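Summary for the funding panel

The consortium committed to producing paired sequence-structure records for every protein in the target list. Below we show the first two records in order, beginning with the earlier of the two.
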Amino acid sequence: MSPDDIARLFTRTDGTYHFARWERPIVPIVFGVEDETLGVVKGACEAVVAMAGHKMAEMDNEQGANLFFFFFREWEELLAVPDLGGMIPRLEGLVERLEKAGASSYRAFRFETAGAIRAGFVFVRMDEANRALSAEALALNQMARVMLDWGEGAFAGASPLALAKGRAVLRPEIAEVIVAAYDPVMPAVAHDPSHALRLAARVGR
Protein backbone atom coordinates (compact mmCIF):
# COMPACT_ATOMS: atom_id res chain seq x y z
CA MET A 1 0.00 0.00 0.00
CA SER A 2 1.18 3.52 -0.74
CA PRO A 3 1.58 6.11 2.04
CA ASP A 4 -1.58 7.81 0.74
CA ASP A 5 -3.51 4.54 0.87
CA ILE A 6 -2.41 4.00 4.47
CA ALA A 7 -3.12 7.60 5.45
CA ARG A 8 -6.72 7.19 4.24
CA LEU A 9 -7.18 4.30 6.67
CA PHE A 10 -6.64 6.66 9.61
CA THR A 11 -8.12 9.89 8.28
CA ARG A 12 -11.29 11.10 9.98
CA THR A 13 -14.34 12.59 8.33
CA ASP A 14 -13.09 16.07 9.26
CA GLY A 15 -9.82 15.43 7.41
CA THR A 16 -7.60 15.00 10.48
CA TYR A 17 -5.22 12.07 10.89
CA HIS A 18 -5.56 9.96 14.02
CA PHE A 19 -3.89 6.64 14.84
CA ALA A 20 -4.01 4.62 18.05
CA ARG A 21 -3.14 1.05 18.99
CA TRP A 22 -3.24 -1.02 22.15
CA GLU A 23 -0.36 -0.79 24.63
CA ARG A 24 -1.63 -2.99 27.44
CA PRO A 25 -2.15 -6.75 26.86
CA ILE A 26 -5.57 -7.59 25.50
CA VAL A 27 -7.99 -9.48 27.75
CA PRO A 28 -11.16 -10.45 25.86
CA ILE A 29 -14.53 -11.45 27.24
CA VAL A 30 -17.47 -12.59 25.11
CA PHE A 31 -21.20 -12.36 25.83
CA GLY A 32 -24.16 -13.89 24.03
CA VAL A 33 -22.62 -16.97 22.40
CA GLU A 34 -22.48 -20.69 23.07
CA ASP A 35 -19.29 -22.36 24.28
CA GLU A 36 -18.38 -23.59 20.80
CA THR A 37 -18.57 -20.08 19.33
CA LEU A 38 -16.77 -18.64 22.35
CA GLY A 39 -13.73 -20.69 21.42
CA VAL A 40 -13.88 -19.42 17.84
CA VAL A 41 -14.02 -15.77 18.91
CA LYS A 42 -11.17 -16.14 21.36
CA GLY A 43 -9.21 -18.10 18.76
CA ALA A 44 -9.59 -15.24 16.27
CA CYS A 45 -8.47 -12.81 18.95
CA GLU A 46 -5.40 -14.90 19.73
CA ALA A 47 -4.51 -15.27 16.05
CA VAL A 48 -4.69 -11.56 15.22
CA VAL A 49 -2.88 -10.49 18.39
CA ALA A 50 -0.10 -13.02 17.74
CA MET A 51 0.18 -11.88 14.12
CA ALA A 52 0.58 -8.28 15.29
CA GLY A 53 3.29 -9.27 17.76
CA HIS A 54 1.19 -7.93 20.62
CA LYS A 55 0.25 -9.73 23.85
CA MET A 56 -2.78 -11.16 25.59
CA ALA A 57 -3.26 -11.74 29.32
CA GLU A 58 -5.61 -13.56 31.67
CA MET A 59 -6.59 -10.36 33.46
CA ASP A 60 -6.25 -6.59 33.28
CA ASN A 61 -5.37 -5.51 36.80
CA GLU A 62 -7.41 -2.31 36.52
CA GLN A 63 -10.39 -3.45 34.46
CA GLY A 64 -10.56 -7.25 34.67
CA ALA A 65 -11.25 -7.55 30.95
CA ASN A 66 -10.58 -4.80 28.42
CA LEU A 67 -12.01 -6.11 25.13
CA PHE A 68 -15.74 -6.80 25.31
CA PHE A 69 -17.67 -8.66 22.59
CA PHE A 70 -21.47 -8.59 22.68
CA PHE A 71 -23.59 -10.71 20.32
CA PHE A 72 -27.37 -10.22 20.33
CA ARG A 73 -30.54 -10.14 18.23
CA GLU A 74 -31.80 -6.60 18.80
CA TRP A 75 -30.05 -3.40 19.86
CA GLU A 76 -32.48 -2.80 22.71
CA GLU A 77 -31.07 -5.87 24.47
CA LEU A 78 -28.01 -3.78 25.37
CA LEU A 79 -30.11 -1.64 27.67
CA ALA A 80 -30.57 -4.65 29.95
CA VAL A 81 -26.83 -5.41 30.27
CA PRO A 82 -25.77 -4.57 33.85
CA ASP A 83 -23.30 -1.68 34.17
CA LEU A 84 -22.96 -1.21 30.40
CA GLY A 85 -24.36 2.29 30.67
CA GLY A 86 -21.44 3.18 32.92
CA MET A 87 -18.95 2.09 30.26
CA ILE A 88 -20.73 3.47 27.18
CA PRO A 89 -21.80 7.10 27.68
CA ARG A 90 -25.37 7.99 26.62
CA LEU A 91 -26.15 4.34 25.87
CA GLU A 92 -29.89 4.85 25.37
CA GLY A 93 -29.37 7.51 22.72
CA LEU A 94 -26.76 5.37 20.99
CA VAL A 95 -29.06 2.36 20.90
CA GLU A 96 -31.84 4.51 19.44
CA ARG A 97 -29.55 5.81 16.67
CA LEU A 98 -28.25 2.33 15.82
CA GLU A 99 -31.79 0.95 15.66
CA LYS A 100 -32.90 3.72 13.31
CA ALA A 101 -29.85 3.19 11.11
CA GLY A 102 -30.41 -0.57 10.96
CA ALA A 103 -26.79 -1.03 11.98
CA SER A 104 -25.39 -4.56 12.13
CA SER A 105 -22.37 -3.74 14.29
CA TYR A 106 -20.74 -0.97 16.28
CA ARG A 107 -17.37 -0.49 17.97
CA ALA A 108 -16.34 1.92 20.70
CA PHE A 109 -13.05 2.60 22.45
CA ARG A 110 -11.84 4.06 25.71
CA PHE A 111 -8.36 5.56 25.74
CA GLU A 112 -5.38 5.92 28.04
CA THR A 113 -4.42 9.41 29.18
CA ALA A 114 -1.77 9.56 26.45
CA GLY A 115 -4.21 8.30 23.81
CA ALA A 116 -3.48 4.58 23.35
CA ILE A 117 -6.45 2.20 23.36
CA ARG A 118 -7.40 1.27 26.90
CA ALA A 119 -10.56 -0.77 26.24
CA GLY A 120 -12.61 -1.83 23.25
CA PHE A 121 -16.30 -2.67 22.90
CA VAL A 122 -17.60 -4.69 19.95
CA PHE A 123 -21.36 -4.96 19.45
CA VAL A 124 -22.67 -7.36 16.81
CA ARG A 125 -26.36 -7.65 15.98
CA MET A 126 -27.04 -11.06 14.52
CA ASP A 127 -29.12 -9.89 11.61
CA GLU A 128 -29.57 -11.94 8.44
CA ALA A 129 -26.25 -10.83 6.94
CA ASN A 130 -24.24 -11.64 10.05
CA ARG A 131 -26.00 -14.99 10.53
CA ALA A 132 -24.95 -15.90 6.99
CA LEU A 133 -21.27 -15.58 7.95
CA SER A 134 -19.27 -18.33 9.60
CA ALA A 135 -18.39 -17.69 13.24
CA GLU A 136 -14.73 -17.60 12.22
CA ALA A 137 -15.28 -14.93 9.55
CA LEU A 138 -17.47 -12.84 11.85
CA ALA A 139 -14.93 -12.94 14.69
CA LEU A 140 -11.92 -12.29 12.44
CA ASN A 141 -13.65 -9.35 10.81
CA GLN A 142 -14.45 -7.70 14.12
CA MET A 143 -11.03 -8.44 15.57
CA ALA A 144 -9.29 -6.77 12.64
CA ARG A 145 -11.43 -3.68 13.15
CA VAL A 146 -10.69 -3.40 16.87
CA MET A 147 -6.91 -3.87 16.78
CA LEU A 148 -6.43 -0.24 15.68
CA ASP A 149 -8.53 2.90 15.86
CA TRP A 150 -9.19 3.03 12.13
CA GLY A 151 -10.83 5.98 10.41
CA GLU A 152 -14.58 5.87 9.86
CA GLY A 153 -14.20 5.12 6.14
CA ALA A 154 -11.32 2.66 6.36
CA PHE A 155 -13.43 -0.30 5.26
CA ALA A 156 -16.27 1.52 3.53
CA GLY A 157 -15.31 0.11 0.14
CA ALA A 158 -14.10 -3.34 1.12
CA SER A 159 -14.09 -5.73 4.06
CA PRO A 160 -10.78 -6.34 5.85
CA LEU A 161 -11.30 -10.02 4.95
CA ALA A 162 -10.68 -12.10 1.84
CA LEU A 163 -11.27 -15.74 0.95
CA ALA A 164 -8.37 -18.15 0.59
CA LYS A 165 -9.31 -21.69 -0.42
CA GLY A 166 -12.78 -21.12 0.96
CA ARG A 167 -11.61 -19.79 4.34
CA ALA A 168 -11.86 -16.26 5.63
CA VAL A 169 -8.47 -14.59 6.11
CA LEU A 170 -7.30 -11.03 6.60
CA ARG A 171 -6.53 -9.22 3.37
CA PRO A 172 -2.73 -9.28 3.12
CA GLU A 173 -2.41 -5.50 2.88
CA ILE A 174 -4.52 -4.99 6.01
CA ALA A 175 -2.56 -7.64 7.90
CA GLU A 176 0.68 -5.90 6.89
CA VAL A 177 -0.57 -2.53 8.17
CA ILE A 178 -1.55 -4.09 11.52
CA VAL A 179 1.86 -5.76 11.85
CA ALA A 180 3.65 -2.52 10.94
CA ALA A 181 1.52 -0.57 13.41
CA TYR A 182 2.67 -2.81 16.26
CA ASP A 183 6.36 -2.52 15.42
CA PRO A 184 7.93 -1.69 18.83
CA VAL A 185 9.68 1.38 17.41
CA MET A 186 6.38 2.88 16.23
CA PRO A 187 4.36 5.16 18.51
CA ALA A 188 1.13 3.97 20.09
CA VAL A 189 -0.57 7.24 19.12
CA ALA A 190 -0.04 9.58 16.17
CA HIS A 191 -1.80 12.65 14.80
CA ASP A 192 0.59 13.67 12.01
CA PRO A 193 0.06 12.17 8.53
CA SER A 194 3.81 11.59 8.29
CA HIS A 195 3.10 8.57 10.51
CA ALA A 196 1.63 6.90 7.41
CA LEU A 197 5.01 7.25 5.68
CA ARG A 198 6.64 5.35 8.54
CA LEU A 199 4.00 2.63 8.35
CA ALA A 200 4.44 2.35 4.58
CA ALA A 201 8.18 1.88 5.04
CA ARG A 202 7.49 -1.17 7.22
CA VAL A 203 4.69 -2.74 5.23
CA GLY A 204 5.74 -5.99 3.61
CA ARG A 205 9.08 -6.27 5.39
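The next record, for a separate protein in the list, is shown here:
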Amino acid sequence: MEAERVQALFTRADGRFLCARWGRPIVPVVFGVEDATLSVVKGAVEAVVALAGHRMAETDPELGANLMIFFFRDWAELPEVPNLDRLVTGLRDLCARLEAAEANQYRIFRFDEAGAIRAAFVFIRMDDHLAAVPVETLALSQAVQVILLWSDRAFADQAPLAAGKEGVVMLRPEIAAVIRAAYDPVLPGMAQDPSHALRLVARIAAVQ
Protein backbone atom coordinates (compact mmCIF):
# COMPACT_ATOMS: atom_id res chain seq x y z
CA MET A 1 0.00 0.00 0.00
CA GLU A 2 1.10 3.55 -0.66
CA ALA A 3 1.79 5.77 2.33
CA GLU A 4 -1.01 8.16 1.35
CA ARG A 5 -3.58 5.37 1.48
CA VAL A 6 -2.33 4.14 4.86
CA GLN A 7 -2.31 7.68 6.21
CA ALA A 8 -5.90 8.16 5.06
CA LEU A 9 -7.00 5.12 7.07
CA PHE A 10 -6.09 6.98 10.27
CA THR A 11 -6.82 10.61 9.32
CA ARG A 12 -10.12 11.79 10.71
CA ALA A 13 -12.59 14.14 9.08
CA ASP A 14 -11.16 17.07 11.04
CA GLY A 15 -7.70 16.38 9.59
CA ARG A 16 -6.16 14.83 12.72
CA PHE A 17 -4.00 11.72 12.34
CA LEU A 18 -4.43 9.16 15.11
CA CYS A 19 -3.48 5.49 15.07
CA ALA A 20 -3.92 3.40 18.21
CA ARG A 21 -3.83 -0.32 18.95
CA TRP A 22 -4.79 -2.35 22.00
CA GLY A 23 -2.30 -2.08 24.83
CA ARG A 24 -3.61 -5.02 26.84
CA PRO A 25 -5.06 -8.48 26.15
CA ILE A 26 -8.59 -8.35 24.78
CA VAL A 27 -11.41 -9.83 26.84
CA PRO A 28 -14.67 -9.80 24.86
CA VAL A 29 -18.22 -10.20 26.11
CA VAL A 30 -21.25 -10.23 23.82
CA PHE A 31 -24.82 -9.29 24.75
CA GLY A 32 -28.13 -9.83 23.00
CA VAL A 33 -27.37 -12.91 20.91
CA GLU A 34 -27.99 -16.65 21.09
CA ASP A 35 -25.20 -19.09 21.89
CA ALA A 36 -24.62 -20.01 18.25
CA THR A 37 -24.11 -16.37 17.28
CA LEU A 38 -22.00 -15.77 20.37
CA SER A 39 -19.47 -18.37 19.26
CA VAL A 40 -19.28 -16.82 15.77
CA VAL A 41 -18.64 -13.32 17.15
CA LYS A 42 -15.99 -14.47 19.60
CA GLY A 43 -14.41 -16.61 16.90
CA ALA A 44 -14.14 -13.58 14.62
CA VAL A 45 -12.49 -11.57 17.39
CA GLU A 46 -10.05 -14.40 18.08
CA ALA A 47 -9.15 -14.66 14.39
CA VAL A 48 -8.43 -10.93 14.02
CA VAL A 49 -6.48 -10.83 17.29
CA ALA A 50 -4.37 -13.76 16.06
CA LEU A 51 -3.80 -11.98 12.76
CA ALA A 52 -2.53 -8.94 14.66
CA GLY A 53 -0.22 -11.07 16.77
CA HIS A 54 -1.95 -9.72 19.85
CA ARG A 55 -3.38 -11.61 22.83
CA MET A 56 -6.69 -12.48 24.44
CA ALA A 57 -7.35 -13.27 28.10
CA GLU A 58 -10.05 -14.69 30.34
CA THR A 59 -10.44 -11.50 32.36
CA ASP A 60 -9.21 -7.92 32.51
CA PRO A 61 -7.87 -7.00 35.98
CA GLU A 62 -9.44 -3.55 35.81
CA LEU A 63 -12.74 -4.04 33.97
CA GLY A 64 -13.37 -7.78 33.88
CA ALA A 65 -14.26 -7.54 30.19
CA ASN A 66 -12.77 -4.74 28.09
CA LEU A 67 -14.50 -5.35 24.75
CA MET A 68 -18.29 -5.18 25.16
CA ILE A 69 -20.42 -5.89 22.09
CA PHE A 70 -24.16 -5.21 22.24
CA PHE A 71 -26.74 -6.40 19.70
CA PHE A 72 -30.24 -4.90 19.94
CA ARG A 73 -33.23 -3.73 17.90
CA ASP A 74 -33.78 -0.18 19.14
CA TRP A 75 -31.47 2.50 20.54
CA ALA A 76 -33.95 3.03 23.36
CA GLU A 77 -32.97 -0.39 24.74
CA LEU A 78 -29.40 0.59 25.62
CA PRO A 79 -30.12 3.09 28.44
CA GLU A 80 -32.11 0.35 30.15
CA VAL A 81 -29.08 -1.95 30.42
CA PRO A 82 -28.11 -1.98 34.13
CA ASN A 83 -25.02 0.09 34.97
CA LEU A 84 -24.13 0.76 31.33
CA ASP A 85 -24.61 4.48 31.92
CA ARG A 86 -21.78 4.28 34.46
CA LEU A 87 -19.43 3.06 31.74
CA VAL A 88 -20.68 5.32 28.95
CA THR A 89 -21.17 8.93 30.02
CA GLY A 90 -24.20 10.61 28.49
CA LEU A 91 -25.57 7.31 27.21
CA ARG A 92 -29.19 8.42 26.97
CA ASP A 93 -28.38 11.56 24.99
CA LEU A 94 -26.01 9.57 22.75
CA CYS A 95 -28.71 7.03 21.96
CA ALA A 96 -31.19 9.81 21.17
CA ARG A 97 -28.74 11.31 18.67
CA LEU A 98 -28.01 7.94 17.08
CA GLU A 99 -31.72 7.17 16.80
CA ALA A 100 -32.34 10.53 15.15
CA ALA A 101 -29.54 9.80 12.69
CA GLU A 102 -30.97 6.31 12.02
CA ALA A 103 -27.53 4.87 12.79
CA ASN A 104 -27.18 1.10 12.95
CA GLN A 105 -23.78 0.91 14.67
CA TYR A 106 -21.46 2.91 16.87
CA ARG A 107 -18.14 2.32 18.60
CA ILE A 108 -16.65 3.99 21.67
CA PHE A 109 -12.99 3.57 22.68
CA ARG A 110 -11.23 4.19 25.98
CA PHE A 111 -7.47 4.70 26.22
CA ASP A 112 -4.68 4.20 28.75
CA GLU A 113 -2.07 6.73 29.84
CA ALA A 114 0.08 5.97 26.80
CA GLY A 115 -2.82 6.44 24.40
CA ALA A 116 -3.26 2.74 23.58
CA ILE A 117 -6.75 1.21 23.57
CA ARG A 118 -7.80 -0.11 26.98
CA ALA A 119 -11.50 -0.77 26.31
CA ALA A 120 -14.11 -0.56 23.57
CA PHE A 121 -17.91 -0.61 23.41
CA VAL A 122 -19.57 -1.77 20.19
CA PHE A 123 -23.27 -1.04 19.68
CA ILE A 124 -25.04 -2.80 16.80
CA ARG A 125 -28.68 -2.02 16.05
CA MET A 126 -30.04 -4.86 13.96
CA ASP A 127 -32.05 -2.93 11.38
CA ASP A 128 -33.28 -4.50 8.14
CA HIS A 129 -29.92 -3.91 6.45
CA LEU A 130 -27.78 -5.59 9.10
CA ALA A 131 -30.32 -8.36 9.62
CA ALA A 132 -29.75 -9.34 5.99
CA VAL A 133 -25.97 -9.61 6.47
CA PRO A 134 -24.64 -13.11 7.29
CA VAL A 135 -23.58 -13.26 10.91
CA GLU A 136 -20.07 -14.38 9.94
CA THR A 137 -19.63 -11.29 7.78
CA LEU A 138 -21.05 -8.94 10.40
CA ALA A 139 -18.88 -10.44 13.14
CA LEU A 140 -15.68 -10.25 11.10
CA SER A 141 -16.40 -6.67 10.06
CA GLN A 142 -16.90 -5.56 13.66
CA ALA A 143 -13.77 -7.38 14.84
CA VAL A 144 -11.70 -5.63 12.18
CA GLN A 145 -13.11 -2.21 13.03
CA VAL A 146 -12.31 -2.59 16.72
CA ILE A 147 -8.78 -4.02 16.50
CA LEU A 148 -7.39 -0.56 15.68
CA LEU A 149 -8.61 3.01 16.04
CA TRP A 150 -9.34 3.64 12.38
CA SER A 151 -10.39 6.98 10.95
CA ASP A 152 -14.11 7.72 10.99
CA ARG A 153 -13.81 7.78 7.18
CA ALA A 154 -11.52 4.76 6.75
CA PHE A 155 -14.11 2.47 5.18
CA ALA A 156 -16.57 4.99 3.78
CA ASP A 157 -15.63 4.24 0.18
CA GLN A 158 -14.50 0.62 0.45
CA ALA A 159 -15.38 -1.95 3.11
CA PRO A 160 -12.58 -3.83 4.89
CA LEU A 161 -14.02 -7.14 3.67
CA ALA A 162 -14.33 -8.55 0.17
CA ALA A 163 -15.75 -11.66 -1.46
CA GLY A 164 -13.13 -14.34 -1.96
CA LYS A 165 -13.29 -17.69 -3.72
CA GLU A 166 -16.73 -19.29 -3.92
CA GLY A 167 -18.24 -16.13 -2.45
CA VAL A 168 -16.60 -16.55 0.96
CA VAL A 169 -16.16 -13.15 2.59
CA MET A 170 -12.65 -12.42 3.79
CA LEU A 171 -10.54 -9.55 5.05
CA ARG A 172 -8.95 -7.57 2.24
CA PRO A 173 -5.22 -8.43 2.13
CA GLU A 174 -4.06 -4.81 2.30
CA ILE A 175 -6.13 -4.18 5.45
CA ALA A 176 -4.77 -7.37 7.01
CA ALA A 177 -1.26 -6.14 6.25
CA VAL A 178 -1.92 -2.80 7.96
CA ILE A 179 -3.25 -4.56 11.05
CA ARG A 180 -0.19 -6.80 11.31
CA ALA A 181 2.13 -3.83 10.80
CA ALA A 182 0.39 -1.70 13.41
CA TYR A 183 1.00 -4.39 16.04
CA ASP A 184 4.73 -4.63 15.32
CA PRO A 185 6.33 -4.46 18.80
CA VAL A 186 8.85 -1.83 17.69
CA LEU A 187 6.05 0.64 16.93
CA PRO A 188 4.30 2.70 19.62
CA GLY A 189 0.82 1.80 20.81
CA MET A 190 -0.42 5.23 19.74
CA ALA A 191 0.85 7.74 17.18
CA GLN A 192 -0.44 11.18 16.19
CA ASP A 193 2.18 12.11 13.60
CA PRO A 194 1.22 11.34 9.98
CA SER A 195 4.78 10.09 9.42
CA HIS A 196 3.67 6.99 11.32
CA ALA A 197 2.09 5.89 8.03
CA LEU A 198 5.56 5.65 6.51
CA ARG A 199 6.65 3.37 9.34
CA LEU A 200 3.62 1.15 8.77
CA VAL A 201 4.39 0.94 5.04
CA ALA A 202 7.97 -0.02 5.84
CA ARG A 203 6.76 -2.86 8.08
CA ILE A 204 4.33 -4.04 5.41
CA ALA A 205 7.10 -4.08 2.78
CA ALA A 206 9.45 -5.95 5.12
CA VAL A 207 7.15 -8.97 5.36
CA GLN A 208 6.10 -9.14 1.72
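Regarding this second record: Residues 1-21+151-208 form one domain. Strands lie at 19-20, 28-31, 67-72, 105-111, 117-125, 161-163, 169-171, 190-191.
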